[in-house]
């Protein structure tokens, strides 16, 4: 199972409802609660009605960013953020999406009422997984549907230690996640547990911590 499939499956099956941002005609973001109806592992599927302003925004600027999280409180939450390009697939997929999400029949109970609906696919982009329920925290970044040189290819974030490191330990003292390995010089940051807080860079006397 690919990384994107693992996270998309969790999003569709365990979280389901996301907060999705689109861009309006003035260039400002607008958010809406949107259910993720299905995934093929490399993309996500959702639907909307053609009469909604969301539909117009998706057509005029076919790009979305969404966040979804699950947990009782902040420290038990797993969160997923996805940003990427969308395309309209039309009405053909609606019956299949209804079959997989039977609750939709309560909202659009008849064939006639379903005619307003159209399906969209988030087909390429990047995602970020953040699990605050683990100690240390766990994070991961992934691409989906890209060919490696696409503009939506994963934008790597975080911090790395370069060869200027003198092994003084100042970064280790201020790291809230204990995710800096001191086994060898230069020290090494375990990105999968890093908060991206920047403490290490601010504390380093040698300019050995770079922000990606
Ligand atoms: S960015 Fe913060 S959490 Fe990550 S290694 Fe530096 S101090 Fe630690
Ligand atoms: S503070 Fe800078 S020089 Fe010191 S151990 Fe950390 S990265 Fe290396």
Overview in brief:
This protein has 212 residues and is of the alpha+beta class. It is built from seven helices and twelve strands.
How would the blueprint of this fold be written?
Elements (H helix, E strand, L loop, with lengths): L2 H13 L1 E7 L5 E7 L2 E2 L4 E6 L3 H8 L2 E8 L7 E13 L3 H7 L3 H4 L3 H4 L2 E15 L6 E7 L14 E3 L8 H5 L5 E2 L6 E2 L9 H5 L5 E3 L1
Antiparallel strand pairs: 1-2, 1-5, 3-4, 4-7, 5-6, 6-7, 7-8, 9-12, 10-11
The structure holds iron/sulfur cluster (2 copies).
CATH architecture of the largest domain: Roll
Cofactors, ions, other ligands: iron/sulfur cluster
Helix segment count?
7
Mean pLDDT: 93
Alpha carbon gyration radius:
21 Å
Distance between the termini: 28 Å
User: Could you please say which CATH topology of the largest domain applies here?
Assistant: Pnp Oxidase, Chain A
Number of domain modules: 2
Helix content: 10-25%
* Strand content bin: 35-45%
Number of strands: 12
Secondary-structure-derived class: alpha+beta
Q: How would a crystallographer describe the biggest sheet?
A: 8 strands, antiparallel
Class of the largest domain, according to the CATH hierarchy? Mainly Beta
List unreliable stretches of 5+ residues.
none
Q: Can you put this structure into words, describing what you see?
A:
- With 212 residues, the protein is an alpha+beta fold.
- The protein has two domains: 3-144, Electron Transport, Fmn-binding Protein, Chain A (Pnp Oxidase, Chain A); 159-211, Alpha-Beta Plaits, CATH 3.30.70.20.
- Helices cover 22% and strands 35% of the residues.
- It is built from seven helices and twelve strands.
- The chain has helices at 3-15, 53-60, 94-100, 104-107, 111-114, 170-174, 199-203; strands at residues 17-23, 29-35, 38-39, 44-49, 63-70, 78-90, 117-131, 138-144, 159-161, 180-181, 188-189, 209-211.
- The strands form three sheets. Strands 1, 2, 3, 4, 5, 6, 7 and 8 form an eight-stranded antiparallel sheet that branches. A two-stranded antiparallel ribbon has the order 9-12. The protein has a two-stranded antiparallel sheet with strand order 10-11.
- Strand 3 (38-39) and strand 4 form a beta hairpin.
- It is elongated.
- The mean pLDDT is 93.
- The protein binds iron/sulfur cluster (2 copies).
- One iron/sulfur cluster binds at residues 161, 165-171, 187, 203-204, 206, 208-209.
